[in-house]
Amino acid sequence: MDPMVRSMASGPNKSGFPPATDIDTGVIPIRPSGRGMLQMAVDENRRSAALKAPIKARAEALGFYYGEFKALKDLNIEIREKQVTALIGPSGCGKSTFLRCFNRMHDLTPGSRYEGRIMLLPEEMNLVAPEVDPIEVRMRIGMVFQKPNPFPKSIYENVAYGLRIRGVRSQLRIQEETEKALRGAALWDEVKDRLTHSALSLSGGQQQRLCIARALATSPEMLLFDEPTSALDPIATARIEELIAALREQVTVLIVTHNMQQAARVSDYTAFMYLGELIEFDETSRIFTNPGRKATEDYITGRYG
Amino acid sequence: MSTEGLGHHISSRYNEDLERLRSSVLEMGGLVERQLTQAVGGITEPDARVIVRVAQEELRVNQLERSIDEDCSRILATRGPTASDLRLIITILKTITDLERIGDEGEKIAAIAARLAMRERPHSRYRELRNLGELVIEMVHDTLDAFARLDTELALAVVRRDRAVDEEYEAIHRQSITFMMEDPRSIRRALDVMWVVRSLERIGDHAKNVCEYLIYLVHGKDVRHTKIEEIEKELHAFKG
């Protein structure tokens, strides 16, 4: 080809990406990690830990209906213990619906109905079974929402509340656990001198960390984050992300985010959902450098598919 | 990934940025290819002015290298590219380094060509360089074609040809040693030949590198430092 016309060339290429396959259901196996030229900055120790991590929760043919509308279609996914799993996808893809199944947030939605199971390991408890008490589920699986929603009470009471509900009577124990939770949420140093002040006097980022402390107080096994930083400025966002990274030492984290870069930064695994289906699930470093499916590629690169 | 695949971003400015970046790389490649063709031509058809022309191109090549680098940094900082976009940026950043070095080697060859021309040696005496020169020019040419079309089959063919270059290099090397041992007066000539051969061999390596990046760009597989048979197997796996 003449070098000068080369830049105009855009003929059909014989060897493009492997064609995207049909969306099939079933557990998508994690591909063996290749020797990517660029595996993002993955800490190798962390990565091998991620591959060895036991499974904490498993969705099995999970379906969910809002009345007639089937919002989730036969999801199969394994959530690994003490890892951060991000759920990404365009609005309406069902990622928040899926997240909310984990602590039974849909129970009060009229006409809603679950199909399939979400098993919490090790005891194989089906989280969405009607006979399982949602209060019990929520003690074990905490949730942090998009907008910080502290109770209109003191900072201290916000965190102590869950412990009291749980039946902890000892003031000393409540004090200890509250401090631990506030430290765990990286908020203690900022609020230790004003624990009796109203929680509403805190900044948005602090309020969000207070909500995380509140969720941590009952020592949950899993934490669910539904776009926890979408209402925060970049600095508060960075703090929350730091916190999520630290939290995975103690809990399993599931996070819904619209911010691709955030998913890439904080998570070990990423699930891409579209129209209620799980399209691709893999290690985060894979998803963001070399996704297996065209739909995923189009979404994360900002193309219209 | 197809060449049209660069487009279709929701942001049209992003599309334009990537498209412009790709054209700049191809423009840079075209200049480097011309440098090389002129330099090798200067050896086989003695020409003392060849160095001036090659050096002139070099200015533009360097300028392009800088501006492409800058564009890549800007896109990384502002767009946070992922997946194939990210691989494109990474590939381009690495490719232009190899292209620039091909240009440098071309300049070295041109300098020797100019010197030889002044010495007024009959050009037929450098015939052994013609084969290797043509082989390497073709490699660079095909590398750029492969880049323009994202054609990994062609890229693979270039990688395969690097072996032939290495063999030719070895053959000329041995031949030169023989000449030098037979007649010490041929040492000067043999050394000149060896410098040129050495540069050509390096250019072959750079072309091969670019082809390997290209395979990474299209398939997301790092095939550097991998045996050619294994690369072929990997690529077959993609085609199913």
- CATH domain class name of chain B: Mainly Alpha
Would you identify the regions of chain A where 5 or more consecutive residues have pLDDT less than 50?
10-43
Number of separate strands of chain A: 10
What is the radius of gyration of chain B? 20 Å
Number of helices of chain B: 7
* Separation of the first and last Cα atoms of chain B: 16 Å
| Low-pLDDT windows of residues of chain B | none
Order of helices and strands of chain B: HHHHHHH
- Estimated helix fraction of chain A: 25-40%
CATH fold call of chain A = Rossmann fold
- Find the biggest chain interface: A-B, 35 and 49 residues
Assigned CATH architecture of chain B: Up-down Bundle
Output the CATH homologous superfamily of chain B.
Phosphate transport system protein phou homolog 2, domain 2
Task: Considering the chains and any ligands shown, give keywords for the structure.
heterodimer, A: 305 residues, alpha/beta, Rossmann fold, six-stranded mixed β-sheet, four-stranded antiparallel β-sheet, 12 helices, 10 strands, 34% helix, 22% strand, globular, B: 240 residues, mainly alpha, Methane Monooxygenase Hydroxylase, Chain G, domain 1, 7 helices, 82% helix
Note down, in words, how this protein is organized.
The complex is a heterodimer of chains A (305) and B (240). Chain A is 34% helix and 22% strand. The radius of gyration of chain A is 21 Å and the shape is globular. Chain A is α/β, with parallel strands linked by helices and 305 residues long. Chain A starts with a helix and ends with a helix. Chain A has a single domain (42-301), classed as P-loop containing nucleotide triphosphate hydrolases (Rossmann fold, 3-Layer(aba) Sandwich), CATH 3.40.50.300. In chain A, helix 5 packs across helix 6 (171-184), helix 5 runs parallel beside helix 8 (204-217) and helix 8 (204-217) packs parallel to helix 9. By secondary structure, chain B is an all-alpha fold. Chain B has a single domain (3-239), classed as Methane Monooxygenase Hydroxylase, Chain G, domain 1 (Up-down Bundle). Chain B has seven helices and no strands. The radius of gyration of chain B is 20 Å and the shape is globular.
